[in-house]
Each structure stands twice: as C-alpha cells, then as structure tokens.
Amino acid sequence: MAELTGKVIIITGGASGIGKQTALQLSAKGAAIVVADYNLDGAKSVVAELEAAGGKAAAFKVDVSKGDEVKALVDFAVETFGTLNGIFNNAGIGLVKPFLEMDPESYHRVIDVDQHSVYYGMYYGAKKMVELNVQGTIVNTASIYGTAAALGSFNYNAAKAAVVMMSKSGALELADYGIRVVGVAPGFIDTPILGDDEGMKNALGALHMRGKLIQPEKVASVVTFLFSEGASAINGQTIPVDDGFLSF
Ligand code: NAD
Questions:
Q1: 8-187+219-240 is classed CATH 1.10.3720.10
Q2: How far apart are CA 97 and CA 26, in angstroms?
Q3: DSSP character for 115?
Q4: Between helices 216-226 and 17-28, what is the axis angle to 10°?
C-alpha cells in the first residue's frame, strides 16, 4: 500500500505550477486530492490527469481570499472523501508596482490572496481536523521574498513574511492537537506566475546557484516529503527551496 493511501489532502492553487505538481506527487503516493482553484477548468483537467493515473481526486472552485469559500472547500473535502488529513495553502498571485504606486487596492488584493487565504486555510482546516480527531499536516507556501525584500513587491513581501510567521505561530498553537504546520520558501520557479518574458525569466534564473529557474516538481517533492511520516519532526519551519538563492 502506498504511504499516503487513505489520506485526504486539499491543495489550493492546484490547477497550475507548484500546486499541480504537488497534486501529481501526493496522488502517486496514494492520497486523495481536492484540487482547489479559482480556475475550475484547470482544476478539472488536473483531476482528470490524476484519475487517469489511477488516483482519487475532485475539483473545487474557490477564491481563497474569501473565508466562507475556504470553509466550504474544507466541508467539501470531508463530504467527498470522508476525512481531512492535510491542507496545502499554496494559491497566490503577484502584483508588481513601485511603492509610490502601491495604492490601497493593489496592496490589499495581494494581502487578501497571499496572506489572509493562509489564515483561512489554517483556521478552517485545523478546526475540521480537531473535530474529526485527525492529527494532520498543514503546509504553507511562502517565498524567499518573505525573508528578503524584492523591489516593487511591498505587498508580496509583507504577505509572504506573514506566511512564514503564521507557520511558526500556527505550529505552536496546534502542537497540542498533533497538527504540524510547516512552510516552503521557493526561489524563482518556472511557472505561469512569472509571465512569458523569456529575457526576464533568464535573468531571474541566473540568480540561482545553478543559473536557471527551478522546476515546480522540485518544490512539489519537498512539499510531498513534508506531508509524509518522515517529516514528522519538522514543525514550524519554512524550508527554502531556492537553489542557494539566499546564500548569495
Ligand atoms: P501559478 O500561477 O502557476 O499557480 C497559482 C495558482 O493559484 C493558479 O492556478 C491560480 O489560478 C491560483 N489562484 C490565484 N489566485 C487565486 C485565488 N484567489 N483563489 C484560488 N486560486 C487562486 O504559480 P505558482 O508559481 O505555482 O504559485 C504557487 C505559489 O508559489 C504562490 O503562492 C506563489 O506566490 C508561490 N511562489 C512562487 C514562486 C515562483 O517563482 N513561481 C516563487 C515563490 C513563491
């Protein structure tokens, strides 16, 4: 039997990039996956891929910046697969502007989608696990820019720094219930969030030790490990997956 057989894991932002690759890897280890995304067609196509490979999966349309929708997502996972063992709070956006053009709308949009979403996923996810008496795992996607500051990303930097602390603080709050909370801090990953300017992508790739963008599978494999029994003594930490970026 595969290691995660019988486990049910929600992945937000599961239609693309890091979330999609994590869905593929967790499903290959036997977990049933709820692929949650604003992009329902994308989520359905990932579900079709997982099912074609013999996995169990379901799609759910969610705007993670809305608490009631995240609560409905958690309920859907339990109604569909009978329990909840993990949630990967991963959906996110960027909105790059110089600080003097960072109007309240641009600031709040990124804080809502990248930061408040993580609180909603942790809050509704953990409450459900406690209600079900499940000792589960929560993984949050931060960024290298939750520790270092990127120019033009005041909103994103603030949100991701908060995510790093929410993993730490959440781990402390939930330890007594046997729920672990951990994070990943990716470097620049080759996903649609970076846009399609090849020159820009090459320049961003050159910032890493191997001189190229990191493939999303490499973040997914770390997240998959964090959901596994082998990672049971990792708690509260945010693991960099940045090919040495922060070491420069
Ligand atoms: P991506 O664009 O490939 O995937 C993001 C997914 O999130 C998309 O499917 C999108 O539809 C979904 N999404 C966006 N807003 C949403 C909302 N309000 N509700 C529900 N779903 C929503 O990008 P990715 O690189 O896979 O990003 C995943 C996470 O990784 C994000 O949190 C991002 O900030 C983080 N990250 C990415 C990089 C990178 O270089 N790609 C680096 C560091 C951190």
A1: no
A2: 35
A3: I
A4: 50
- Classify the complex by whether its ipTM is higher than 0.90, answering yes or no: yes
Question: How many Å apart are CA 246 and CA 19, to the nearest integer?
Answer: 23
Residue-wise pLDDT tens digits, 191-242: 999 999 999 999 999 999 999 999 999 999 999 999 999 999 999 999 999 9
Q: What are phi and psi of 241, to 5 degrees?
A: -125, 75
Which residues does a 6 A CB cutoff place in the pocket of ligand 1?
Answer: 12-13, 15-19, 37-39, 42, 62-65, 90-93, 113-114, 141, 143, 186, 188-189, 191-194, 216
pLDDT tens column, 136-195: 999 999 999 999 999 999 999 999 999 999 999 999 999 999 999 999 999 999 999 999
List residues bridging with 140 in a β-sheet.
89, 183
For the record, the structure tokens of 184 come out as 């990943």
